[in-house]
Amino acid sequence: MEFPSMVNIHPMSAGNIFRYGIFLVWLNGCAIVSVLETPNTDESPIGEKAHADTEVTQLATFRSNPDSRPESNQPHANLWQQLTSEFSWNYPPDLATRNAIEHFKRHPRNLERAAERATPYLWFIADQLRQRKLPAELALLPMIESGYRGKAQSHRGAAGLWQFMPETGRKFGLRQTRWYDGRRDVVASTQAALDYLDQLIHRFNGDWLLAVAAYNCGPTKLRKMLNENSATNFWAIRADLPKETRHYVPRLLAAIEIVRDPIRNQINLPPIPNERVFTRLDLAGPIALDHLYNVAGWSEAAFAELNPAFNRNYTDPQGPYEILVPIHLERRVVNTLDKIPASQRVPTKVHLVESGDTLSEISVHYAVAISELKAINRLHGDLIKIGRELLIPIPRQNHHSPIYPGSEFKETKHVVKRGDSLWTIGRRYGANSTAIAKLNHIAVSSTLHPGQVLHIHSQRSTTHYSVMHGDSLWRIAREFGVTIEQLQAWNKISKHQVLQPGETLIVSHPSNIEND
């Protein structure tokens, strides 16, 4: 990582040894999260098999008071200790919570990994909770939700540290485009999650267990369960809740209890310095992200850890243009940014629009999505004027680029038929009419004769498209100017098949479509 994640341990006094032991125990509690070892799951860290439904022995629900946190004149050097010093909840462990605690204790390595993944995010989240006077315990919620994975994606479509579903994310202002997913934006998603939790605690009259349960299964469903059971607390309706929610709250409470007393659980976790990790940097416009972090000497992994929201190697042409930068790299990145000329921020080439060109054909020809062509050229419709120069982003050969060519070019011989023109032939084969004329040593205005043989180099016969988060057949078909039925036929899939991120689809060139 590009930011400090460990604190050097020196010989300690007896008092320091005791405090460090407390810290280790606390860290133990974090193990909860790491059971989320598979990114594509929306299950909480503990496996469902570890929780048999058992009768709850205590039904009491306690209200928490954020203002009741112990006052501390001296902040702790270790963030975990600082966080626990601000805990304010007092929910006696019920049987389900004790079962969850035992599960976490049996998987200590999971907790260690989760705590390591929390390193770049935890200080910011704790600070935001403090500013809003929300319980510090909520800093452990991403452990249960995502295992503190910035790019976590569930099979149901939830994404990011806080696992927002697409609709809920949009409701709380998280933009989702082909370039950027606000649900995975560390700052934006944290602020949205706290907005949501703040709404929920007021909706459920100050009961944090109900608010947390509603965060998982939805407030409408939870309110319905309360009304149907004439109940006022979580434990009274727990048995009737969806399986995931039934164990969700006990897992969070178990995490809190372990963090409160980590020594007893014999788990060793890396300390996290109680200091700010990153700052926000305004790029003042679109840029090729790999160019920025490579020139700045910033590793791709470290960049992605703080900036998991970007779907592409470029910032969204429409913004946002902000990135998170480690504090110790801020000056270097700013200096690097100042040295990159505007003309080199987004590498492009120029396409001169000719008669018969369409955005769809240009899109396939250069393996660039129509929406990207529109954005970078500020087009509001599908019409393009002959003679206009269109900027074409140059794809970079890395995993950020979702589109890549199926073949460099295809050489074809075409026998001219009555009514053919260079324009109609170029359209058929996905080739530029000027290029056809040059290849065959004729003028663009030449009259073609039936039986005449033309050599044609079509740039690509097919395009391979790598599915991104939020994609659907309808959306991809619209991007490339083809039909859903054609996508189904080319890829042998059903209309209602759920696309998986990373899956590759074949998109045929217009020259092939005519023969389908």
Question: What layout of secondary structure does this protein have?
Answer:
Layout: H1 14-29, H2 31-34, H3 79-85, H4 95-106, H5 108-118, H6 122-132, H7 141-146, H8 166-171, H9 186-203, H10 208-217, H11 219-228, H12 234-237, H13 243-260, E1 278-282, H14 289-295, H15 300-306, E2 322-326, H16 330-339, H17 342-345, E3 348-352, H18 359-366, H19 370-377, E4 389-393, E5 403-405, E6 410-415, H20 422-429, H21 433-439, E7 453-458, E8 462-466, H22 473-480, H23 484-491, E9 504-508, H24 510-513
Antiparallel strand pairs: 1-2, 3-4, 5-8, 6-7, 8-9
Helix pairs in contact: 1-13, 4-13, 6-9, 9-10, 10-11, 10-13, 20-21, 22-23
- How many DSSP helices? 24
Count of domain modules: 3
Biggest β-sheet strands, sense, barrel: 3 strands, antiparallel
Total strands: 9
The share of residues in extended strands comes to 5-15%
What value does the average pLDDT take? 78
N→C terminal distance: 50 Å
The residue fraction in helices comes out at 40-55%
Sequence stretches where pLDDT stays below 50 over 5 or more residues: 1-70, 396-409, 510-516
Tertiary shape: elongated
Which structural class is indicated by helix and strand composition?
mainly alpha
Give the radius of gyration: 28 Å
Order of strands, main sheet, comes to 5-8-9
